[in-house]
Amino acid sequence: MSASVLYDAPGPRARVRNRIYGAVSVLAIVGLVAFVIQRLDTTGQFQAGLWEAYEYTDTQHRILDGLLTTLKTFGIAALLSLALGALLATARLSDHRPVRWTATVVVEFFRAMPLLIMIFLLYAAVFTNDPMWALVIGLTLYNGSVQAEIFRSGINAVAKGQSEAAHALGLRKTQVMVHVLVPQAVRSMLPSIISQLVVTLKDTALGFIILYEELLFVGKAFAAQTQPVNGVYAFIPMVIVFGSIYILLCLALSGVATWIERRTKRSRKGAPPAPPVAVDLGTGGSGVVNP
């Protein structure tokens, strides 16, 4: 569908207005960035003494250890939350009312529970000596419940004719769910799934509350141990450096999602049809057969 069907194409005056609005917006953003940089410079946040510690090998090793810990925690929590989400979504779509009601209560409870309270409760009550699992299980329960709603919405969005045709072919409900509905739902809901995984990645930063040595905990401890320069502490440089790392991680995850989406679209297109083949029909002449 062309864009002109959805809305009228802008005329000459509208195009001029759009250019003016765009230029004003760019100038406003540039001005805001310049103001922030000027304020940071005025307060002494760009002093070399606050940044030179990041050149040391020991500092880089500490950052790398925190990064690997964050990635390990995210990987485990992401896999478990996807598995839990698929399980709860299947239960919510069950024909058995007790199973459906139980899954609904579980999903709504863990979606409503504040994640920070859940993590702290798990740490204080069960995993005092192993904060990683308090963080992982908290992330799994919360994000798994959200993923369950994403999966359920995706499955319900698949046209009913798909499942009806599969049932007409003699497939059981489990086979219809696994081979027909779930693949189409995952493809259509992939952006939402990846968005929730990005949330999971960022929520690993809550581990510093329970003294888990993930990336943010390492950054906070490093900034606290750095000697102030001319009365200025190193917390703003820490926020800039470690915030940039989190942004790069989220961009990398979004890039992986884009690559997966392109691959799935390419696989759905399939191979091009084979060209017609000329065959000899004997005395009757020749013909063309489409394979």
TrEMBL record:
Region entry Disordered, spans: 265-291
Domain ABC transmembrane type-1: 67-257
GO cellular component term, pick one: ATP-binding cassette (ABC) transporter complex
CDD domains: TM_PBP2
Protein topology in the membrane: Multi-pass membrane protein
Keywords: Cell membrane, Membrane, Transmembrane, Transmembrane helix, Transport
Gene3D superfamilies, A to Z: MetI-like
Record's keyword annotation contains Transmembrane helix: yes
MF annotations from Gene Ontology: transmembrane transporter activity
GO biological process: amino acid transport
Comp. bias (Gly residues): 282-291
Location of this chain's protein in the cell: Cell membrane
Transmembrane segments annotated in the record for this chain: 20-37, 74-93, 105-126, 232-260
Pfam families the UniProt entry points to: BPD_transp_1
PROSITE patterns per UniProt: ABC_TM1
Location (main, coarse): membrane
Annotated family: Belongs to the binding-protein-dependent transport system permease family.
Protein known as: Amino acid ABC transporter permease
Species annotation: Streptomyces caatingaensis
